[in-house]
Amino acid sequence: MYRYQPKSKEDSLTASFEHDFAQYMGVKHAVGTNSCGSAMFIALNIVGVQPGDTVLTNAFTFHAVPSVIEHARAVPVLIESNREWAMDPNDLDKKATETGAKVLLMSYMRGHVPDMDAIMKVVEKHGLILIEDCAHAYATLWNNKLLGTFGEIGCFSTQSSKALSAGEGGIFITDNDEHAARAVLYAGSYERLWMKHYDLDAGLMDRLQNQVPGYSMRMQEVTAAMLTPQIERLSTIKKIHVDNWELLHSLIHDHPNIEIPMPLPEVDPFCDTMQFHLVGLSRDEADRFIDLMKQEGIPMQIFGARRNARDFRQWEYIKAHQDELNETIANIEFACDLSMQPHLTQENIRIMAQVIQDVLTYIGEQAH
Length: 368
What we know:
The chain has 368 residues and is an alpha/beta fold. It is built from twelve helices and 14 strands.
């Protein structure tokens, strides 16, 4: 089960998985970790983030992202989201100017993609180091370029409900040889165990060997065994998700209480979840909608309600409230989150659409 137990890299399931995933992504290096949070923490260390440094990141994301920044003892500066829940390039430009921050840890929360051309202009303008959190952005493209390959480092999650899932786990990818070398050592390679990895520079590894601390954040063989066969299925799973998302959208998008913001035309999304805004409902009515959907066997949540971990106002462990972030508040306050797992059939989707409409009709009748 230990990734370095096999006698050679050819015998290691983890090394083989790393090699296969790097090839799938079209990058030089992939390093398996025990979580995406670990991959992001390692990334922050590699790019030189020090205690007290400011790190730019999304106001709308899962709390694991600001937690990683806190883990590095740095200070997150939160960037507004737009109506489609992606990072706002204008607010990024503003906050980069105000703070002088040099690192952007950008999350594609629930697969929502900002205007990457605008984002990369801001990155270039301010000389930002971009680390991409792709936990929700497998097989997602901007103008035919895979997310995770825009910045210096991409980080992926293999936790539950992700496109590649093994319960826990993460992946660090890069084209930078020294970043990869340091990632291997930070993750917990010691002595000359790095020889059980593919495509590392021996001279570089020997030089860095005892300069980099090991944080015991390795992937294990069982995790890699579960993940390896899933890589070649990603395209099939994506087609199921896209077909189901488009069907559900066609059935509910014109409901008066539903607003579904569409991704930019440059985006080729994975579509394993659907988000929509509830419009024309009170707080109590929106909460009632969530309760009734759960009773009907379709569990959902609202990002801006009930102490949701994706609501930045709940992150009491960081100083996140120095800015009102009114746009993000408006964009999560009635935003429903629906998981769409690949086992769902199109008939299942039609039933889900009917239940959503029936519940909204019932709530409307009760209000009158």
